Amino acid sequence: MDVRDRLEKFAGQRVMPAGTGDERAVLRSFVDFQRTTFAQKLVGLSDGQLRQRAVSPSTMSLLGLVRHHAEGERGLMQILFLGEEHEPWWVTDETPDLDWDGVDDADVSADLTRWLDAVEASRAAEAQVDSLDQVAVGPELYPGQGPVNLRWVLVHLVEEYARHNGHADLLRERLDGATGY
Fold this sequence. Notes:
By secondary structure, this protein is mainly α.
């Protein structure tokens, strides 16, 4: 399946978060709602539009957000929570803002694929964990933070997407006038 078709299919899976259910089901539904909301902001845009910075001097673009979320999904679930080792895709000590700044020559399809694959991997990893209380085994996300559990990781994913979905709303509106949550 073409990555644009895959993106559109994913965006179409958006449903309102659960109003009832156990804590995990509600958290999972909020994470997925935020992920699919973000996907909706990307559907129908050209590579050039996804790369476009909308508000100078910021280097933020929708493609930068895709890359940021791809690193975040993998960083939170595979690296922090499961303790897996991965080479960064964009962000390193030498290139801390490459997810935002490196979009001009980026392969948009590859970046979208990385994000969608990272979401799938995060969902699979989360589904394998028995309890929200299970503690992450990877390195600290923030120096001195101490241990975090799966509940914290899921809440942090909601926070990251919700915050950046506000940015995505403004970027998309600036590009083609599309609005909505």
